[in-house]
Amino acid sequence: MRDHILVCQFDEDLVRKFHNQRLVIILSDFNQVQQAHKLVNDCQNNLHCLVIDHAGSLASVPFHEKWRGIPLALFVSEIGAFKEVMGKLPLLRDLNIRIFLSTDNKENCTGLHILASLGIDCGVSFGEKEIDWEAMNDLMTYSIYGKVNHASIEPFQFIARNYNPARLTDLSSVYFDNPYTYIHIDKNENIALTANDLKEGKFILKGIENVHKIFEDEKYQEALNAWQKFLLKENGCAYCQAWRICIGKFSESADKNPGCRQFFTDLMEAADHFISVQQKNKRKEVWQP
To answer: Which of 157, 187, 225, 280 lies at 20 to 30 Å from 270 by C-alpha?
Structure first.
C-alpha cells in the first residue's frame, strides 16, 4: 500500500524531520516559494505541491522566473486587472501552476473560462456562499466537451480522468483533502485526516514516526467509511443518480439549492463521454524492437 502524501504548513523545523516523504507545503507568503522548495529537496523529500491562499487578485501576484519547475497551487479571490495578467501570460504558461478561483465571486466562472482558453490550468474553489450550479454546469460543459484547445479546469478533468461507474470518485483529491491519499500534520506532529479535522483538533495519531501506522487505526477506517451514513437515510444524497461522484459533499445545502443534483448528473455523463472518446481515439500499440 502506497504511503500518504503529507500536508502541512511551512515550518522549517517540521520539514527537516521528514525524510523520503511526499509533501504538500502550505505557504503564507510568496517569498517562501524558493525557500520551501530548496528545503524540501535538501532534506531528500519529494515535493508534491506548494499551496498559497492569496486574498488578493491574480493580477497582484508577484510571479518570478525562479518559480519555473516548482509545482504550485494558487488560490486567489479573482483575476483582477486583465491587462496586468496578460503582461504575465508568457511566464504563467511556462510555470507548473494551477490557479483556483472561488465560487463566492460569481464573475470567477467567466474568469476560469478565460484562463483555460489562454492555456492556463485552473480550478474551481468551492466557497461558502450559495453556488450558481447553472454557471458551474456551463463551465463544466466547456471543460469536457469543448473542442477548441484549452487548458484543464478542475475538478471536472479529475472526475473525467478517474471516473469508474463501479466505485466512488472523490474530487477532494484536487484540494489535497482525500484521506485515501492525503493526511494532515501540524508543527507539533499531530496527525489528522482532513484540513478541517486538523483545525478543530480532531487528531488520530501523533508523531511523524507513526504516520505509517495510520492504516491500522480504527478512526482512519471509520473515516474512509463515513460516506455510508448517507445510506441510512430514507431520502437525500444517497438517492441521487450522481451519488458516486459527489458523495454527499453538498448535502447541507442540497434542499435549499438543489441544482447540485443536475450538475453532478451532467458531470457524470460528461465523464462517460470523456472515457468513450479516449477509448475511441486510443491508437493500437505495436511491439517495439
So the answer is: 225
